[in-house]
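Justification of resources, computational component.

The compute hours requested in this renewal are based largely on the per-chain cost of generating structure records like the one below. Each record pairs the submitted sequence with a full structure-token output. That output is archived, and it is also reused by downstream analysis tasks.
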Amino acid sequence: MNKDYYSSMPAAVKSFLNYQSTIKNKSVNTIDQYCLDLRLFLKFIYCDRNNISADDEEIFNSVDISGLDNGFFCTVTLEDAYRFLAYCKIDRDNNEKARARKVSCIRSFFKYLMLNNIIKDNPMINLDSPKLKKSLPKYLTVEQSKDLLMSVSGPNRERDYCILTLFLNCGMRLSELVSLDYNKIKIDGDTATVIITGKGNKERTVYLNNACIAAINSYMKVRPTDGVKDRYALFLSNRLTRISPKTVQHLVDVYLEKAGLGGQGFSVHKLRHTAATLMYQTGRVDLLELKEILGHENLNTTQIYTHLLDSRLKSAVDANPLSDFTEKNTSSGK
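The structure output for this chain reads:
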């Protein structure tokens, strides 16, 4: 948790953040984002009511909201929230996804205030979220995935190859991959599993296929053992500490470039989409199984892969050489 931002929050916000962390078991990243969103929201309302320009970044950042009491929260209205969202869109150039996240945070906060009798009525119960554009996940084809794996070279070849293999076969999130411990991997002949710690510190077991087993075995033969600072970390940096998300993002970008896939919108997260898409397209895994593999809380999140398949099926039908052959064409050709 960002201690500087946390310490500058009103007591009610600190209580909310502690609740989300200890009871709801939200991740550190989620708590930090809640803190930032509420900080921006409350500063905007304070400035709006005191005729302070929110355009001046220096003045805006200097506004002290730590003293806002429960009486202040009782005065916040739905109109305040919509003015804030307009400010986020126009002045801060937030896209609909960023604004939707802020709406979710504000809703959760005011629900908490009401449940704890800090406010009598919840003004945010009817707060609408921006309509999100539906876009299909971008992913690598099978051939592009193979090209990416074949591009791996250098002194960390076994480690990097193993990282890419796990991304492409297991659909792990970046945070999940860097937190992997080798003692959570169980290999018994051709059967292997790994315990993954996902969002909210929820653990799930994922089976490893032959490619993953081979990559892990190859890497463990060369993984350093002396001077390691994080004993059980599967993937290590050159400093013998647990590899950082930033390092993984960088090496993925490097290999995407080497494979001729740079500048096409691919990223670490797109490798997760690739694994999910390839698994679903084979027809050997249904949505509920895919939900468990990916660690989704809600089936609706996994549902996007059915839309993707529908799109490919439409393209396949449209590609039929008879797709433009009509009765009218037949008549004109006589």
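Residues 232 and 316 are 47 Å apart (CA to CA). The chain is about 55% helix and 5% strand.
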